[in-house]
Design goal:
The longest helix is centred in the first third of the chain and has 31 residues. By secondary structure, the chain is mainly alpha-helical. The two termini are 19 Å apart. The chain has five helices and no strands.
Length: 119
């Protein structure tokens, strides 16, 4: 049984680093070039506040999620937030599914992290 636990720990680390990279890249890129990312925000969200402000808030959220994933603490909750975030991205951008279809794989990676995390 020790081999399975070690395998789950390795899988958890790989999933955490992979998901953290995705959120880190999105946060950094949207802070650096917000004009490239504004179009991915749903119109209803853009109507609520300035898109650049919203992108900054989302970037802060993503950076917190990155740190949480890398910390390894309360992973089920971090994984659940990853799932909800990624599903939200896909559902709010169905018109560009040709771009967001990759996020479906990330949803399942986050689900896998949720399943193998015991806390």
């Amino acid at each position: 049984m020790a081999g399975k636990k070690g395998g789950n720990e390795a899988a958890s680390l790989l999933l955490r680093v992979g998901l953290a990279f995705v959120f880190l890249y999105a946060a950094a890129a949207s802070l650096k070039s917000p004009q490239d990312w504004v179009g991915y925000l749903p119109q209803a969200a853009r109507d609520l506040m300035a898109p650049e402000t919203l992108l900054k808030l989302i970037s802060v959220y993503e950076l917190v999620l990155v740190l949480w994933l890398l910390s390894g603490k309360y992973l089920r909750y971090a994984a659940a937030l990853c799932v909800m975030t990624l599903v939200g991205i896909v559902l709010s951008n169905l018109s560009i599914f040709i771009v967001t279809f990759r996020d479906i794989g990330l949803v399942f990676a986050a689900l896998a992290l949720f399943v193998i995390s015991d806390k």
